[in-house]
Amino acid sequence: MIEEKKDFFDRIMSWPVLVRFEPWYKKNKEVLLYLFFGGLTFFVSLGSFVLFDRAVGFNELVANVISWVLAVVFAFFTNRIWVFEGYTENRKEFVQQMSGFFLGRVVTLLIEEIILAVFISWLGMNSILVKTGAQIVVIVANYVISKWFVFGKKNEDKQ
Questions:
Q1: Of the candidates 33, 43, 49, 145, which lies 20 to 30 Å from 79 by C-alpha distance?
Q2: Residue 52 has what pLDDT?
Q3: Which of 118, 18, 138, 15 minimizes the C-alpha distance to 61?
Q4: Coil, helix or strand for 7?
Q5: From 28-32, 47-51, 52-56, 126-130, the region with the lowest mean pLDDT
Q6: Cα dist. 109→3, 23, 52, 112, 154 in Å?
């Protein structure tokens, strides 16, 4: 019998206080981990946006691009390792995977930039509230892109 390899999160779910939730966790693991790491990515994005927008005084669109770069690098590695388990066989596959991930994120960056331009620059709304709302749209869109286009082939091969 082949023993299933448990990652950090699987081991946490084996704790006595959490073991009763383990079947539900296993069934929903991908979405739960995406939400967890999406939440962390949200804080990386929002925190760096606030830093560059408010503390440094950059234009909100410039601050957003900087926060986007930091968040995308963080998200790529967390999504690749824990959420979608997107292991690659060689450097070429890795570069293709990373390129697809960044290309998908560029699409959602453009969506986010439009939201920020309309609601902050043109309508004068609060930048933090608008950024927060835009992040919700972006997180959902990024999941779809990652699940179906970037890491999807490897997931289908595993099943």
A1: 49
A2: 95
A3: 118
A4: coil
A5: 28-32
A6: 41, 36, 17, 5, 25
Collapse the DSSP code of 18 into the 3-class scheme (helix H, G, I; strand E, B; otherwise coil) and give the result.
coil
Query: Cα–Cα distance between 69 and 102 in angstroms, integer?
Result: 9
pTM here is 0.73
DSSP 121: I
Structure tokens at 102: 């960044």
The phi, psi pair for 16, rounded to 5°, reads -55, -40
**10: amino acid identity, one letter:** D
How confident is the model over 91-129, as pLDDT tens digits? 999 999 999 999 999 999 899 889 999 999 999 999 889
Which residues of 2-94 form beta strands (DSSP E)?
none
* Residue pair 76/39 in contact by the 8 Å Cβ criterion: no
* Token pair 């760096």 in the structure block, residue: 48
